[in-house]
């Protein structure tokens, strides 16, 4: 394309942008409250907006092609009814994360890799309106007194927003998408996240009321694995889920979902994860599923696990199974109880049976790298025993993708007896080295 053609195209795009801004402003002025009329369905509002945009475009002096007209209608519809320039990425099934650094810089994650999109918001004001639209749907707010917030989209996708003065340059928005259909264990096996042997073991452990912690770094896939583990819980058990922003999607019929709440504008009304864990104990749960333990709620969670709520599941941020124990100790001590370190470790060793550690590897894939049994205390140290480990020694292929798989270490876990007590039996061959099914 010549310089003259590029300049002509650039000028055309600027003119289309002016038309779009003009039409959108007149649309808002013409329809006003109708855009937010709760008596109208989403489909009805969409039809009203589309019809009015077509009408307003006819009044413009600029001659538009059919493609340009459709593009403007789509962009205005996304801006008014959806999340503006983010809508195409929300509709794209290959995009797993959307990162808005500022109105003009939007990145997405595909297959574990980051890509710059070139898309942008018209202005910082439009980005702020988009953030307000998201958080307002679930009764949360973001302003100078509360400059960051965790929220969720209607499909369960997790949202984090942070605004100035905490974000120095401009508002930032991060959306972690979730599949429209929850992943199953077979999906995780096909992705290479875990092996068929690990899937079989984890299903047996959930049915046999083994207590899990799923650990890993940010974006390692902990919540997806937690969803899959929770899907193994029998349908005749009462499950209570506790989350900061509700994103778990369990399919069982007997579920009560609880969500924490931040303080209101007066600094009152906060309901923490710890409050919800304590309240859950009065709700006759068979299983407690906590989206993430990150503070003093760890103490209440451990006590719940030690008082008859076996088979509970949660996630925790950590770099390794050993780090999980250190983090739990720290979080328990945050509760302000005068407990000795040995007493804390006894609680942990008694409550937790298995740690599943997951990592996002350099090739972008998410893999379970450890299935580790938590033993008892030897002196003042909690013993750990790796049942399955990822084989990093296999190296990488020419595309940088890891060739290794998670494999049994040959050690037979002690919780096999506990499974037998719940009439759940697994083959000893599951733990034999080389028995992995490709």
Structure, described:
The protein has a 9-stranded mixed β-sheet with strand order 9-8-10-11-7-12-13-14-15, sandwiched between helices. The model is unreliable at 1-8 (pLDDT under 50). The protein is 36% helix and 21% strand. The chain has helices at residues 3-31, 42-58, 66-81, 87-91, 124-136, 185-191, 196-207, 222-231, 273-280, 297-305, 321-333, 341-351, 416-421, and strands spanning 95-102, 105-110, 113-116, 148-152, 158-162, 172-176, 212-216, 239-243, 255-259, 287-290, 313-317, 354-360, 366-378, 381-390, 406-408. The longest helix is centred in the first third of the chain and has 29 residues, at 3-31. It is α/β, with parallel strands linked by helices and 438 residues long. It folds into 3 domains: 1-81; 82-179, Beta-Lactamase; 185-431, Rossmann fold.
Strand and helix map with partners:
Blueprint: H1 3-31, H2 42-58, H3 66-81, H4 87-91, E1 95-102, E2 105-110, E3 113-116, H5 124-136, E4 148-152, E5 158-162, E6 172-176, H6 185-191, H7 196-207, E7 212-216, H8 222-231, E8 239-243, E9 255-259, H9 273-280, E10 287-290, H10 297-305, E11 313-317, H11 321-333, H12 341-351, E12 354-360, E13 366-378, E14 381-390, E15 406-408, H13 416-421
Parallel strand pairs: 7-11, 7-12, 8-9, 8-10, 10-11
Antiparallel strand pairs: 1-2, 1-6, 2-3, 4-5, 5-6, 12-13, 13-14, 14-15
